[in-house]
Amino acid sequence: MPASPLARNIASQISLLVTTGELSSGDHLRTQHLADKFGVSRSPVREAMQILAEEGLLEQKENRGFFVKDVPESRIIEPINDEPKPFEVENDYQRLAEDWLMDRIPAEVTEGMLRERYDLTKAQLSDMLMRAVREGWAERKQGYGWRFLPVAKTPEAFEQIYRFRMLIEPAAILEPSFKLDRKIIEEQRRLQQRMLETDIMRLPAERLVHNGSIFHEELIKMSNNPFFHLSLVRVNQMRRLLEYRSRVDRNRLFTQCEEHLAILDLLERGEILEASYAMRKHLSGALARKSPIARSWSQHAHEKIPAS
């Protein structure tokens, strides 16, 4: 039986994790972890891992699961052609997100209407809607049907998210319970340096945005206040809705990574107040660069959204 489009898409995402170094040779792939990461059920993840095992990227060990094999040279990602181009729908989920952003579908819908519009099976639609729930822009109505939410759908909401982050992220660094985690610092330094050296110009925009979000989510963990971390993860999920129709400013990412590394340096030196101030300045700069989006939104221009 041919692999489902969803499984193929997940297989591509797992392959990208390997080629970018997020997964290394010998790593054990945990089905539930990947299902949570991609916002799907475990079934398409298992199918995706089977695809990659057949292609030689993963190894399936009896009674132990799937493990990453050595990455062949042929899987190294080629540089991205960064010429401006229109938004491209990569899968049905992004198509749904784009339709909601552009007001092509109503706020309240039925599963039957969505299945017919996107030509999906019940299981495929369920995966899509559950991912939308996890990313904060859909909810099941009481009784029957679904409702799409206006969170992060407008430039005003996007700005509110950044202003919220400007409050909680610097404050988290100043928490009495904040404690430096060397493992987090070393891993984020490695990722940021690799971004500067090679990844900015060769990775897909979605992965660059993900790396920016992970930097902030990992740092806020060190506050040891789970409410800070949960809140940031939640608003970052909502922010992704706008990112499905945006184009990342790759040139700006070099400065962003340098600012990330400067914050890490301050933390390692124990300059906590300075690190908190640097974080607020970093987020304030990202918000300022967002301003042109609001001016062009009504014309449906293809914005450049900061990846922090």
From TrEMBL:
Query: What UniProt keywords apply to this chain's record, in alphabetical order?
Result: DNA-binding, Transcription, Transcription regulation
The HTH gntR-type domain, residue ranges? 4-71
Q: Name one Pfam family in it.
A: GntR
Transcription listed as a keyword: yes
**GO molecular function, a single term:** DNA binding
> Could you confirm whether the keyword Mitochondrion appears in this record?
no
Put simply, this protein is called GntR family transcriptional regulator
